[in-house]
Specification:
The protein has 83 residues and is mostly beta strands. It contains no helices and five strands. The protein has a five-stranded antiparallel β-sheet, with no helix packed on it. A hairpin with a 5-residue loop joins strand 3 (37-41) and strand 4. The termini are far apart.
Length: 83
């Protein structure tokens, strides 16, 4: 796994109770882009040092929620047109 500052770390949830997390990579300490990465998470704006596991991947852009899946943490709830 290799990353650059500005890439997104996507960590898939393993259960319905642990939804996908997304964070922007803000620091890459190694010149070759290898982990660990400093990541600012979308769901709580917290920055942490991450050693990605097998459920993580690096993307150039944030990932949108899949149809039928739980909402992505930190994204607004869908509107159903009711007031």
């Amino acid at each position: 796994m290799r990353a650059r500052v500005g890439n997104w770390l996507i960590v898939e949830g393993s259960t319905d109770e642990s939804p996908r997390r997304q964070g922007q990579i803000v620091v890459v300490d190694h010149a070759d882009g290898s982990p660990p990465f400093w990541v600012r998470w979308l769901d709580d704006d917290h920055t942490s040092l991450v050693f990605p596991g097998p459920d993580a991947r690096v993307e150039a852009h944030p990932v949108h929620a899949r149809l039928g899946s739980p909402a992505v943490a930190g994204s607004p709830a869908p509107s159903h047109g009711t007031s």
